[in-house]
Amino acid sequence: MVLTATRKNCKALPNQIKHNLGLDKLTTGGLQVLFKDESGIYLQAQQVKVVKKATKSPIRPAHMSQQVKHPEKVMFWCCFSAQGTGQLHICEGMMNSAKYMDVIDSRIKPQLQEHFPNGDYVLQQDLAPCHTCKAVQRHYEVSNIKIMEWPGNSPDSAPIENLWANIKSRLQNFDYTGKENVIKSVVEV
Q: Which of 59, 71, 83, 110 has the largest count of CB atoms under 10 Å?
C-alpha cells in the first residue's frame, strides 16, 4: 500500500537551485531525466544504555554507549527532474516487485505525464532487485516507459541520493520518535 503525504507538490524548483545543482542541463541523448528512488528512515527509538567496563573499575561516561534495539523503519518514495520535485509518498513495508509495479502505475506514470507531457524523457533508477526483475521490466515495456542504462554499484552517481542525504541530514533537528512524527518531519524538511 502506498500513501500520499500531505505535502503540496512543488511545481518547479527556483531557477538558481536548478542551476546550482546542474538540473537545468540534465538531459541524455536529447531526453530529460526523471530521477526516482525510495529510501528508508529509521525511527528514533527508546535507547538502551550499555556499560562495558572491567568488573571492579568505576563507571565512567566513556564506558557507556547507547544502542537502539530493533529500530522501526519508514520507507519513502520521491522523484525529481529539472521541472521540479514530485510528490512524496510513504510506502508501507519494504518495497518488492508487486508494490513497485503499483508505484509505477499510481506514481511514476502520473509524474512522467506531469513533468514531460510531450514524452521526451528517460527514467533513471538504481539496480535494486525490485526495479530490475523480469515482471517489472515487462511492465515498463507495456507502459512504454524508457529506462536509462545505469551502472551497478554506483549510488553516489544518482542526484536523488544527494536529495535523500540532505533530507536525512536535516532530520537531525526534528523529533521523529514515532511513525507519525517521522512522516511529519520528512514532509516539513
A: 83
